[in-house]
UniProtKB/TrEMBL annotation:
It is found in: Cytoplasm. The keyword Chaperone applies. The lineage of its organism: Bacteria, Pseudomonadati, Pseudomonadota, Acidithiobacillia, Acidithiobacillales. An accessory protein needed during the final step in the assembly of 30S ribosomal subunit, possibly for assembly of the head region. Essential for efficient processing of 16S rRNA. May be needed both before and after RbfA during the maturation of 16S rRNA. It has affinity for free ribosomal 30S subunits but not for 70S ribosomes. Binds ribosomal protein uS19. One of its GO terms (biological process) is rRNA processing. InterPro entries: PRC_barrel-like_sf (IPR011033), PRC_RimM (IPR056792), RimM (IPR011961), RimM_N (IPR002676), RimM_N_sf (IPR036976), Transl_B-barrel_sf (IPR009000). This is Ribosome maturation factor RimM. Its main location: cytoplasm. It comes from Acidithiobacillus ferrooxidans (Thiobacillus ferrooxidans). GO terms for molecular function: ribosome binding. The keyword Iron does not apply.
Length: 170
């Protein structure tokens, strides 16, 4: 039986389309290296987290395509479009020192160096130049704070907070 606690799941991508006539799906991968999503099986799809065994997969152009067991035609593959691909957190390798999975940081409190509460982490954005931490200020707004090695040095998981060099009015 798969884990039931949402905190035990990490979403690695989503099914974005169909590929070919033999039931392959296109995958939009959230992993740093796009094809790293193929290192995990089973994939747990959709809100019910139904397990699907990964039979085969590869890079196809700039994207990833995959063949799941028991998905043998275009219509079966089409039914999976839009579903999130999750794995159990325990299946992920431990991050190195000073490294964090973004999903671990979602929900942490964010304070600046002066101790002013800025809000909670709601998401991260990959912009190409640098990553950005999205902080919900609790007042209907959000702050976009550059994420860097320096910012990650302020993470304290034991107390659930991140200290950043940032002002509330920036």
């Amino acid at each position: 039986m798969p884990a039931s606690d949402a905190g035990e799941w990490v979403v690695l991508g989503r099914v974005s389309g169909i590929y070919g006539v033999r039931g392959m799906v296109k995958v939009f991968s959230f992993t740093e290296e796009r094809d790293a999503i193929l290192d995990y099986s089973p994939w747990y799809l959709g809100p019910a987290r139904r397990p699907w065994v990964l039979e085969d997969g590869r890079m196809q152009g700039e994207g990833v395509v995959a063949k799941l067991e028991q998905v043998d035609d275009r219509e079966q593959a089409r039914a999976l479009i839009g579903q999130e691909i999750a794995v159990l957190r325990a299946e992920l390798p431990d991050p190195g020192a000073g490294e964090f999975y973004w999903s671990t940081l979602i929900g942490l409190r964010v304070l600046n160096r002066e101790g002013v509460a800025l809000g909670t982490v709601s998401a991260f954005l990959e912009t190409g130049a640098n990553d950005v931490m999205v902080v919900d200020d609790g007042k209907g707004g959000e702050l976009l704070i550059p994420w860097s090695a320096e910012a990650s040095a302020g993470v304290d998981l034991s107390v659930g907070r991140i200290i950043v060099d940032w002002q509330a009015d920036w």
